[in-house]
Design goal:
The longest helix has 20 residues. The protein is α+β, with helices and mostly antiparallel strands.
Length: 270
């Protein structure tokens, strides 16, 4: 007989799908995605933890500083999703790799939650915006390596949607990996990496944690593109975490490398 207590309800499946998509999620971030109250979500999460579909990470020292617990799917949770219709895209390699989630560094988790937070802010401001995470992108061969933090597709009318590669840059990211990331984008487009998609190349969005980091991003990006000597000019825009926090009330937050004095909203970027 089937134990009815272990049969997943749609609300539980929705939580599992979000944790699969973003890999780690806090109670607040998942609640925002599902338009739920955090307290109501907490009870649902604890049930999923109890049955072994979900686990959580929270170091004692970070709990004292108010850092939220990070929830993630266990291998059992991933296998449970795979058994459901239309979840065949969850591969054995993803399930095998998920065993590492209980030991990955706190800095990796923190960055993953930063990316999730930015995705929530953007989708709240733009209901027609579709967001694809690295796990989503890994199913397709035409994305650049390393993968962007997020791929965004903004539908506008009957024409082609506007597409974006977005990277979330914390204050502590050294200059070298940032330089290498910009160079890899330049090489990807210059070598025709996006041509199989038969669409306009995505616009690059670089989101700095603070204004100081945004200015460092701009300097590093200009230097990387100058030395790359690519044939086609890339569209690159920057902004900050603080700007996206008030995005709904002030959508003009993006600055072009070519015109740093003008602020534009996402649909206006070209």
């Amino acid at each position: 007989m089937v134990d009815k207590r272990t049969v997943l309800k749609q609300g539980q499946i929705d939580i599992l799908e979000l944790l699969y998509t973003y890999r780690f999620g806090s109670r607040q971030l998942v609640a925002d995605s599902l338009n739920m109250k955090p307290d109501s979500l907490y009870r649902k999460l604890e049930v999923l933890v109890k049955h072994g579909w979900v686990a959580k990470r929270q170091e004692a020292r970070l709990k004292l500083t108010g850092t939220p617990a990070a929830y993630y799917l266990t291998p059992k949770g991933l296998r449970t999703l795979v058994a459901l219709p239309d979840h065949e895209y969850i591969t054995d390699s993803v399930i095998k790799g998920s065993y590492k989630d209980k030991t990955v560094t706190q800095s990796f988790i923190t960055q993953t939650l930063r990316v999730y937070a930015q995705a929530n802010r953007l989708t709240a401001a733009y209901p027609n915006l579709r967001v694809f995470t690295r796990r989503n992108m890994s199913r397709y061969s035409y994305f650049p390596q390393p993968l962007p933090d997020l791929f965004l597709s903004l539908k506008q009318g009957e024409g082609q949607p506007k597409r974006f590669f977005l990277d979330v840059i914390p204050d502590g990211l050294p200059a070298k990996p940032l330089y290498q990331r910009i160079t890899s984008y330049a090489e990807f487009f210059d070598e025709g990496g996006w041509e199989p998609v038969d669409a306009n190349p995505p616009i690059l969005l670089l989101l700095g944690e603070t204004g100081i980091t945004e200015r460092r991003i701009q300097r590093t990006t200009r230097s990387a593109l100058y030395k790359a000597e690519i044939d086609e000019e890339l569209s690159v825009y920057t902004s900050t975490f603080g700007a996206t926090e008030s995005l709904s009330g002030n959508p003009a937050i993006w600055t072009s490398l070519d015109d740093p004095d003008e602020l534009l909203a996402l649909p206006e970027l070209e």
